[in-house]
Amino acid sequence: MASQRDVKNKIASVKNIQKITRAMEMVAAARLRRAEQRIAALRPYADAIGRMTRQAAGAAGAEAMRLPLLREHDSQTRTALLLITGDRGLAGAFNSQVIRAGVRLSGEMREQGLESVWYASGRRGVSSLEFRGYDLSGSYTGFADKPAYADARSIGDDLMQAYVDGHVDRVDMVYNAYVSPLTQRVTQQRLLPLTGEALAGEQDTAGLGDEEPEKRSRATVEYEPGPEEILKRLVPDYVEISIYRALVESAAGFFGAQTTAMRSASENAGEIITEYTLQMNRARQAEITQEIMEVVAGAEGLT
């Protein structure tokens, strides 16, 4: 059995760790509230940009495919994967679940004959991918806790340039979408090309079924300049705001995961302290019992 002094040292050590985890929990909770406010302010704007892009693409029709960012490449052989993680750890499985999802997605693409080109945001993602032996075409660190729009623009410019130049034929993004402090959902989003569901739109066609074809094709919104010119401005903004939204949601998810992890660590430390306290009491009781037995034995020896 460990001595009473050894157990006391262990209790003191665990208490110091508990103070650190409680402080980290409080800091993460405060940052989480600010991150939630940023998400609440950003989501309506991001949704509006997406809606405007879909509507303009629907109005432009076939003309929209002339834009380099909307045009699908003739063959798809290389796919860019952007993984968004945090700069720090101590947040449970927050970072690892994004990395596992990205690696799993890369494996599925490899089975389809697609080569993966890796991009990573966040020190954890960059270091993990490099440790696994992947070559990164783009790495972005130092802003995961509080991303700015300029950071999203920098990432978006690299991805859009790679797509326009033909270095990649598709761009996918994997990140943790923020649901609640306890829940972060791993999300995959197609960034480029902006076709299919991304630009399918939710056109309101109610009441148009019996009208003439020229009336059905007439847009409900008049664009000045034309929808093609507006798309040239909207599409880059749509890509950038999608990346920025993912960065902001990932930051909030990180603080939520860290708050939960540090709370759990503090509770576990409390349980360990309780266990060590019982162990120390047993050690003290054993020492007292031993001393009593020695006194009794000495007294019996004198009689």
List keywords for this structure.
alpha/beta; 2 domains; elongated; Pyruvate Kinase, Chain: A, domain 1; five-stranded mixed β-sheet; Helix Hairpins; 303 residues
Structure description:
Helix 1 (4-60) runs antiparallel to helix 6 (227-302), helix 2 packs across helix 3 (123-131) and helix 4 (149-164) packs across helix 6 (227-302). This protein is α/β, with parallel strands linked by helices and 303 residues long. The protein has helices at 4-60, 94-111, 123-131, 149-164, 213-216, 227-302; strands at residues 78-84, 115-121, 136-140, 170-180, 183-192. A five-stranded mixed sheet has the order 3-2-1-4-5, sandwiched between helices. It has two domains: 4-21 and 261-302, ATP synthase, gamma subunit, helix hairpin domain (Helix Hairpins, Orthogonal Bundle), CATH 1.10.287.80; 32-195 and 219-259, ATP synthase, F1 complex, gamma subunit (Pyruvate Kinase, Chain: A, domain 1, 3-Layer(aba) Sandwich). Residues 199-219 have low confidence and may be disordered.
In spatial order, strands of the major sheet run 3-2-1-4-5
Helix content: 55-70%
Find the structural class using helix and strand composition. alpha/beta
- Counting structural domains, the number is 2
Shape: elongated
Mean pLDDT: 85
The N- and C-terminal alpha carbons lie at a distance of: 34 Å
Unreliable spans: 199-219
CATH architecture of the largest domain: 3-Layer(aba) Sandwich
Can you identify the CATH class of the largest domain?
A: Alpha Beta
